[in-house]
Amino acid sequence: MRLPPDTPLLTSYRKYWAHRFGVSPFLPMSRAEMAAQGWDECDVILVTGDAYIDHPSFGMALIGRLLEAQGFRVGILSQPDWRSAEPFRALGRPKLFFGVTAGNMDSMVNRYTADRKIRSDDAYTPNAEPGRRPDRAVAVYAQRCREAFPGAAVVIGSIEASLRRIAHYDYWSDTVRRSVLADSKADLLLFGNAERAIIELAHRLAKGAPIQSIRDLRGSAFMTPRGWRPGADWQEADATTVDTPGAVPPHPDPYAMQAAKNDTGGADGAGGIAADAPLRFVKTRARRAARAHTVIRLPSYEQVKDDPVLYAHASRAFHLESNPGNARALAQAHGERDVWLNPPPVPLTTPEMDHVYGLPFARAPHPSYGKAKIPAWEMIRFSVNIMRGCFGGCTFCSITEHEGRIIQSRSEASILREIEAIRDKTPGFTGVVSDLGGPTANMYRLACRDAQIEESCRRLSCVYPDICPNMGTDHGPLVQLYRKARALPGVKKVLIGSGLRYDLAVRAPEYVKELVTHHVGGYLKIAPEHTETGPLSKMMKPGIGVYDKFKALFEKYSAEARKEQYLIPYFIAAHPGATDEDMLALALWLKRNGFRLDQVQTFLPTPLSLATAMWHTEKNPLRKITRDAESVSVARGGRQRALHKAFLRWHDPANWPLLREALRRMGRANLIGNGRHHLIPAFQPAGALRAAAPHKDKRDKQNKPAAPHRREQKSKRR
């Protein structure tokens, strides 16, 4: 995406006067550390549910160092005891604002499994100690900040706030909850990667602007009186004008753009054309100006909490307004007030990404933790984040709602410098870089071939139902990066730990060869998620045939390299659209291909995702929503969810009683027996008669959280 001409660069601001205090070894977590820096107060205090690790993979450290580079004095309140306001007074009253986050993970996903059971550990806490953060931490922390210092400005952010910025379905209470702005009473919510917004906000507050007057920051949300407008030239459009309810059109891809004539077509380009047709756009200056001063009114909280059809419609409208190149402001009534959302933030340029990741991080946990082990730190300490964002559009994924679909990549030089910093400064480095990746391993520097098309596009995926002809798939820059990284002195091996987007990889066999030959440590994880068309169409994932193509390339190049290597596929149980028959077909595929999954993932409905809208409403927001629109099958009950999970672990004797019962009910008793063609045996081993209830995994998958917490799933080949 092109940088709008009126967008200031992160490095273009004049530094705040407090820059004279210099750089802190660690951002202060106590009054004593503040005094050692010569501070009598903090300009900004960041409150987080995570342990403080001064590393760019941790949000509070990245934002804190970024504000420090602008000259502001930044303190950290890490995992404060929320049971009283006193711990929130530890660093005094911030001169400018409190910045409140739940941490790198949503606090509810962090604490509860997909079966709503409490997890036994917390990867972001010293020694993985559980219970160090409250449920719905953003709202709780914000309220305690208000209690500690009445009148102080409170700004909320992070993935938890991003995913709750409008009315949303909450899986843990099985209700539609209000925007987190209403519950937290915060002055401002910054959603997405908020570098631009938080820097501009800090400088404007430092110049004396009241926070209540700052209403024009992209990537911000706030509450206003009902019907408020930024100016007299603004107009309101009902969400039905974005996506007029009507008959479901028979398009194979409901988000394919219309070919341009003199404009983007009806419903703002939400019609359909052939997936392989190139797109061209012509936009008039007047139309752009009109869009920039239009707010889309979503159905109110009171409407969507009681009407699943309106909830599904609001979800579809919300996602159609997600491209920062053409998104309009959104408003949603909550009683007598509106939640107002400005358009998404403008993505960072490569020089800006280099600036952010090149800040003087200590690259270590705060010394106050002593020798305590923090699992999330152990997992990423030797890895490098090379990009952010994802254009895959998987409906169950939280990344696109938070980081967006525009890929933001660092320069090759910046990445190589960070590898050298790991080599020279990180204790325990043995020469193995554990990952060069991000949300996906292989979207580095991939972008739309035409900036005008990218800014006009309203598709939710650049790769579904097939890769858009306008999407670049050149993996050459990534191959060159891999080669230069492993050639650095002191680097023995560079592994790729991030999940691979294999439908892109098959378009670049030279990349697959490079990857398989040099960067796989015996196992490579990829995520087909399912084998059947029904659930795959609700996930917006490619068919299993693409997996087969990638597998053939993987095995070919592994053989050429004389290496014994295996693919580790991920699959989701109980995803919307998956029937019992679909899960049986997947189980038979697993048996046929010799996979015995050791850990599996059950669909977890996270706020705002399209798959969660399907789960809650049993409607398909990938198509126009009507009262009689397509229904989506949902495995909602605990027993059916347990059955879907059991199909993924068909080899576990504990699951056989449940599977036998289901197979007989489905008329597939022919799969019960002791032959090679049977799925499960007719006998039950002694000691394996316990109920086949959902057993507790050590780690259930969050639907791709914007965090360094990697998904782990082992498989054994028979």
Task: Report a brief summary of the structure.
The protein is of the alpha/beta class. It contains 26 helices and 25 strands. The strands form 8 sheets. It has a 10-stranded mixed beta sheet, with helices on both faces. The chain has a 3-stranded parallel beta sheet with strand order 21-22-24. It has a two-stranded antiparallel ribbon with strand order 2-14.
Per DSSP E runs of 2 or more residues, the count of β-strands stands at 25
Spans where pLDDT lies below 50 across 5 or more residues: 245-283, 691-718
Mean pLDDT: 90
The CATH superfamily label of the domain at 17-219 reads Cobalamin-binding domain
In terms of structural class, how would the helical and strand content be classed? alpha/beta
- What is the CATH architecture annotation of the domain at 17-219? 3-Layer(aba) Sandwich
Which CATH class of the domain at 17-219 applies here? Alpha Beta
Instruction: Report, as a whole number of angstroms, the end-to-end distance.
Output: 47 Å
Provide a count of the helices: 26
The biggest beta sheet reads: 10 strands, mixed
Shape: globular
Task: Enumerate the strands of the largest sheet in spatial order, edge to edge or round the barrel.
Answer: 3-1-4-5-8-9-13-12-11-10
Strand content: 5-15%
Q: Which helices and strands, and how do they pair?
A:
Layout: H1 31-37, E1 44-48, E2 53-54, H2 59-69, E3 74-78, E4 97-100, H3 107-111, H4 137-148, E5 154-156, H5 158-162, E6 168-170, E7 175-177, H6 180-184, E8 188-190, H7 195-206, E9 220-225, E10 235-238, H8 239-242, H9 266-269, H10 285-292, E11 294-298, H11 301-304, H12 308-320, E12 329-334, E13 337-341, H13 350-357, E14 364-365, H14 375-380, E15 383-385, E16 387-388, H15 399-403, E17 408-409, H16 412-425, E18 432-433, E19 435-437, H17 451-456, H18 476-486, E20 493-494, H19 502-505, H20 509-518, E21 523-529, H21 533-539, H22 544-560, E22 566-573, H23 580-592, E23 595-597, E24 601-602, H24 610-617, H25 638-648, H26 656-665, E25 715-717
Parallel strand pairs: 1-3, 1-4, 4-5, 5-8, 10-11, 11-12, 15-19, 18-20, 21-22, 22-24
Antiparallel strand pairs: 2-14, 6-7, 8-9, 9-13, 12-13, 16-17, 23-25
Helix pairs in contact: 12-24, 18-20, 20-22, 23-25
